[in-house]
Amino acid sequence: MKEFKILEIKESIFEDNNKQADLLRGELKNNKTFLLNLMSAPGSGKTTTVLKTIEALKNDMRIGVMEADIDSDVDAYAVAQTGTKVIQLHTGGMCHLDADMTKQGLEGLGTENLDFIILENVGNLVCPAEFDTGASKNAMILSVPEGDDKPLKYPLMFSIVDVLLINKIDALDYFDFDLEAVVERAKKLNPNIKIIPISARTGEGIDEWANWIRAEVRNWQE
Amino acid sequence: MHELGVVIKVAKTVENFAKVNGITDIDTIVLQIGQLSSMIPRYIEACYPAAVHGTILENTKLQIEVLPANGMCGNCGKVFNLIENKYCCPYCSGEDIELLSGKEFMIKEIIAC
């Protein structure tokens, strides 16, 4: 008869990811590379926003993009057309990126000589909020057609991001979207959140967004 | 459904622990999952056999302990369950709440020899 005993492990699986994320952030800080984790639901205009962001900043800094998707390379193709350094990551069915996958992506992309890297996370408002990728800052996009109740439905996402971009504001007239209610709901979850209404299609608000990035990259590189 | 990737990580962590501590025969793994964690116990159980297939954890039993989502009211200092009370203090209706537990996803222990 074998004698079984209880062995304590007490290891938090999220804790392990958090440790790796902190290590990665440290490396990025040393390399003077600012990594932005950009999250949103599918169809919120992430890739269009990324393209506008590149256009606004390409003369000020050296930019790289990591596109994370479950499958396909349509987003990476669109970004590559702008001449920006880009890598497509496939998560193989996983609904989020963790610090380990982000590190592998950065190694594949090569961070040397890059000031600013955008990580376009998997389109999903749930799981990416749970896993620290090691990014310098986190941003999310909520688009007008998705509705103003999203901070109520996905509170964790709204509470962990530094910036909330409210996209497709050129379509405000066509939807029952209460912009003030979103601002109030998001601030209740996250008093320090920076909220920038934009339209990636018309370019409205992109200047303010680009200025925020310039200031953050400068801070990071000091 | 992100449980599979996370359970594979659990399997790797336990395998490492077993290697380091010279353990060859594992009977049961005990996980602690908070009520506010995005990990659903039912799905963890469903994907466990696939996640441990071909590892030293194949044929081990899985036990899950659910940890309550408890918070402390910043106004009156009392502790209550957040889900049962919809994030609102049942004693003073305060909404300034400090989260005490509920987001955990831990490997608590293993039963082995």
UniProtKB/TrEMBL annotation, chain A:
One biological process term in Gene Ontology: protein maturation
Keyword terms: GTP-binding, Hydrolase, Metal-binding, Nickel, Nucleotide-binding, Zinc
The keyword Disulfide bond is annotated on this UniProt entry: no
CDD domains named in the record: HypB (cd05390)
GO MF, any single term: zinc ion binding
Any Pfam family hit: cobW
SUPFAM superfamilies to which the protein is assigned, alphabetical: P-loop containing nucleoside triphosphate hydrolases (SSF52540)
InterPro entries associated with the record: CobW/HypB/UreG_nucleotide-bd, Hyd_mat_HypB, P-loop_NTPase
Domain CobW/HypB/UreG nucleotide-binding: 38-196
Family as reported in the entry's similarity comment: Belongs to the SIMIBI class G3E GTPase family. HypB/HupM subfamily.
Matches recorded under PANTHER family: HYDROGENASE MATURATION FACTOR HYPB (PTHR30134:SF2), HYDROGENASE PROTEIN ASSEMBLY PROTEIN, NICKEL CHAPERONE (PTHR30134)
Name of the molecule in the record: Hydrogenase nickel incorporation protein HypB
Organism whose genome encodes this protein: Tissierella pigra
From TrEMBL, chain B:
Family: Belongs to the HypA/HybF family.
List of residues binding Ni(2+): H2
Pfam families: HypA
Protein name stated in the entry: Hydrogenase maturation factor HypA
Binding-site residues, Zn(2+): C73, C76, C89, C92
Keywords for this protein: Metal-binding, Nickel, Zinc
Gene Ontology terms: biological process: protein maturation
Free-text function comment from the UniProt entry: Involved in the maturation of [NiFe] hydrogenases. Required for nickel insertion into the metal center of the hydrogenase.
One function term, GO molecular function aspect: zinc ion binding
